[in-house]
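Researcher: We're teaching a course module on how sequence relates to structure. For the next exercise, students receive a sequence and then see the predicted structure as tokens, so they can try to spot secondary structure elements on their own. Here is the exercise chain.
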Amino acid sequence: MTAKPHLDVLLAAPRGFCAGVDRAIQIVEMALEKFGSPVYVRHEIVHNRTVVESLEAKGAVFVEELSEIPTTGAPVIFSAHGVPKSVPEEAVKRNFFYLDATCPLVSKVHVEAARHYANGRQIILIGHAGHPEVIGTLGQLPEGAVTLVETVEAVKDLNPPDPAKLAYITQTTLSVDDTVEIVEALKARFPLIQGPHKEDICYATTNRQSAVKAIANRCDLILVVGAPNSSNSKRLVEVALRAGCPKAMLVQKAAEIPWDIFENVKALGLTAGASAPEILVHEIIDRLKAFYDVTVEVVRTATEDVIFKIPKALQPVAAQ
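Model: And here is the predicted structure for the students to work with:
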């Protein structure tokens, strides 16, 4: 019998679920426990098919818009990414009982945007067009109050009405390094621009990127477990490549891995985006063990202990 080749697996930590994702999933599960099914959820609660399918099996019904929901007394839940103000307004008009699972760190950005607007500032939002979080943040204020900037190059084209009355906010799931470059370009062009009191990129995004940087130059390949529509997962692939790993790839689960990419791989890095459940990471390690003699080393760069409160309407369930 031929001995299996050896593979070192460097497991980045922290990885996987953040407090905002954890809270959003709990809100759906607790609503199902308290009110029974169906519970309607506008947009994927978090960007992960495994999570969505598991909640669907328990009785959650996912829709893209409130118009898809029949007149109902069942709870309607808004996803962790946040929603434009028009969404709760429509929910009130239709007499829906709604629960807001927006991540508190996204809500913090919404509050900042409202504060800057109240102070007469034009707002620059650094983020990715079309992402649900960006759509939700843009929808907090009247059209034209917020300008979206995606790249350093786009900063050159900005012509605000009053350069002395400018502020910037950011999507919470961006590449830390890319965002620093855009912020520096903004400050160089508009020295009086106001920034957030505490940076908008969330602690979990920052920590997961730092953990990937810590293993990148020790790995021949890094696999990032996450969905193709997950911004923070896609950023982890970019961070891995930029930090010196020759190959990095996004995979949703073990069954998707193209095994030919493992040619000449002696050390594999493994991490997961903030909306990817840990079970998917363990499935990949189990699958690797079928082909390799695997040694797993956990490389931890931070410890997370953040917990966010559950909405009041569900707190008796949380107490149980």
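Model: If you want an answer key for the exercise: The chain is about 40% helix and 20% strand. The mean pLDDT is 95.
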